[in-house]
Automatic annotation (TrEMBL):
GO molecular function, a single term: transmembrane transporter activity
Organism field: Actinomadura litoris
Keyword Membrane recorded: yes
Keyword presence, Mitochondrion: no
Domain named Major facilitator superfamily (MFS) profile: residues: 216-402
UniProt-listed Pfam families: MFS_1
Residue ranges crossing the lipid bilayer per the database entry: 16-40, 46-67, 79-98, 172-192, 212-234, 249-270, 282-299, 305-327, 339-357, 369-389
GO cellular component: plasma membrane
Name of the molecule in the record: MFS transporter
Membrane topology type: Multi-pass membrane protein
InterPro entries according to UniProt: MFS, MFS_dom, MFS_trans_sf
Alphabetized PANTHER family for the sequence: MAJOR FACILITATOR SUPERFAMILY (MFS) PROFILE DOMAIN-CONTAINING PROTEIN, PTHR23542
Alphabetic keyword roster: Membrane, Transmembrane, Transmembrane helix
Entry's localization field: Cell membrane
Amino acid sequence: MASPYRQLLAIPGARLFVAAGLVGRMSMSMEGIGIVLMVSAATGSYGIAGAVSATLALGFAAGAPLTARFADRYGQHRVLVPVVLANTASYTLLIVFAQAGLPVWTLFAAAASAGLTQISLGAWVRARWSHVLRDAPERVHTAYSFESVVDETIFITGPMIVTALSTGVHPAAGVAAAAAFTLVGCLALAGLRDTEPPPRPREPGAGDRGILSNPGVLVIAPVFLMLGMVFGAIDVSGVAFAEEEGHKALAGVLLGCYALGSGSAALWYGARHWRRPLSRRFLAGLVLLTAGLVPPVLVGDLYLMMFVVFFSGLAISPTIIPGFGLVERLVPPRQLTEGLALVSTSVGIGVALGSSLSGRVVDARGAHAAFFVPLGCAVVAAVVGLAGARSVRAREIAATRT
């Protein structure tokens, strides 16, 4: 491992919370695909499957910032245990309802409950990095890059695991495994008290300005919303495309190639010392990500698509990492977990919308046409980022001077 990453993992307690975070958020790359495979098998419709997956993502988007706010105020361990137990119960109900053939509305209810209790664990782990590196803030960039590598490792392995379980064992096996990963990882992280950020209770009588009052977040969150639509649309389109090509079991490999490109870029990105400001790197990533999504709409062969999406994924991490870095730079420490979770859950809302829209396009026009959805979403993300660039840059400069 390159020296900067080896030095990070030498920090006392870092290896443990990294491992717990990895296990706990394996589900983020499994739940969407797992639900699509389970519900489509039960109902015969990708449209319904995508909508159920979208419901879970919307619930996640609503609940995760709230649990993150509680973590900032009361401490991570006090919040993790009850929430993850409720999450496990909700996933159990979703599986039971799907396998019992109950009315479709019950699937939506269970998915909403599972989403509301799903924790944005990546934000919680990044908050731990900011805490343990509080005396070396210049290393936060490398830590966030490392977390992006962890994320992409999850997005490489998770889809392959969930598709193998759902297609080779049982349609519900992938969702069950995702819930189990979440339970084990969250309980493990709750037990790691030494690296936990201290709670920052709100002072009595103090103003409580919401995280959305931060102008920088108001620009970054919509961009991450559109990026989430890219990811959600890629998931559904990729699964459907592999099935149309007669290789449904290779859907996870296809999506893993996309994540492999992003993970490779993250390793390179985090090991470098950058002089350009975060805001400019963020914009450059958006432009490159948009350009990288053009080739998939032109390819009609599954194996060539695997090659193409690897290169499409190279711009993901160099966009996501500076985006998280901007949030860490622009929000006050007492709202850090909430700010990071809000950006993550903006992705969750986007995944919901992208999954649903792409599922409808698959049902109406076929899988190949659905690859236009992520391309269009990336264009919108770049436009929004460019429109808010001056505001974000001004606040980045102000934050650097304080």
